[in-house]
Design a protein that fits this description.
This protein has 208 residues and is an alpha+beta fold. It contains three helices and eleven strands, in the order αβββββββββββαα. The strands form two sheets. The protein has a six-stranded antiparallel sheet. It has a five-stranded mixed sheet with strand order 4-3-5-6-9, with no helix packed on it. The chain starts with a helix and ends with a helix.
């Protein structure tokens, strides 16, 4: 075996070990497609927390006025335990938890319903934009806001103002979805370069 052939053989062994290490590092990821998908987000549109973004990265999210909720909105129009967002497969479902002022999707009062991308979820007097990149939850491109409360006048509701969701989403947090996408790009590029080097090394070894 020539000197060049030995070098190529050593390089191929090193490359094989590198592939094994890379596979071990990312073996904990059961669904690799998740690296390329940003998690859905709930973005507050109303003035009290306008632009605040919550990344929906677990199966159940609680919404309410008290601090023990995943999405805490300290507004008097919300109940302490107002609603829940529950993940079912690739979709999120909203369930009203017997709130005083109700839960609505795009102006329609509901007790339980699936959410689609660009839907306006209204809890009490607070509007929330549901933003999802999942194609199965895509809705129409038109997003409407519609405050409609069945409330007793003694609650002293302050005047509400509709918000443009396009302006609001620009100030939201990007969450960890961008980091996942960047990690996925790095992995793909590493694999492509490794495969190309492997092919070159194999040709050099055959030529020697």
């Amino acid at each position: 075996m020539t000197k060049n052939a030995k070098k190529v053989q050593s390089f191929m062994i090193y490359l094989t070990k590198s592939f094994d290490i890379l596979a071990d590092d990312f073996s904990f990821i059961e669904n690799k497609d998740l690296l390329f998908m940003a998690s859905p987000r709930a973005i507050i549109l109303s003035e009290i927390m306008r632009g605040k973004s919550f990344e929906l990265n677990k199966d159940v999210f609680t919404i309410g006025r008290t601090e023990d909720n995943d999405i805490c909105i300290p507004d008097g129009t919300l109940s302490s335990k107002h609603a829940e967002l529950i993940k079912e497969g690739e979709l999120y479902k909203v369930i009203d938890k017997g709130s005083t002022n109700g839960t609505r999707i795009n102006g329609e009062r509901i007790t339980e319903a699936n959410l689609r991308s660009s839907d306006i979820l209204q809890v009490g007097g607070i509007e929330i934009l549901f933003d999802s990149e999942d194609s199965s939850s895509k809705a129409s491109n038109t997003t409407q806001t519609n405050i409609n409360l069945d409330m007793d006048t003694n609650l002293g509701m302050k005047e509400m103002q509709n918000i443009n969701p396009i302006n609001s989403t620009s100030t939201g947090n990007t969450g960890s979805g961008g980091k996942k996408g960047f990690t996925a790009i790095i992995i793909v590029l590493t694999l492509v370069v490794a495969v190309l080097l492997f092919m070159v090394a194999k040709k050099l070894l055959a030529g020697s």
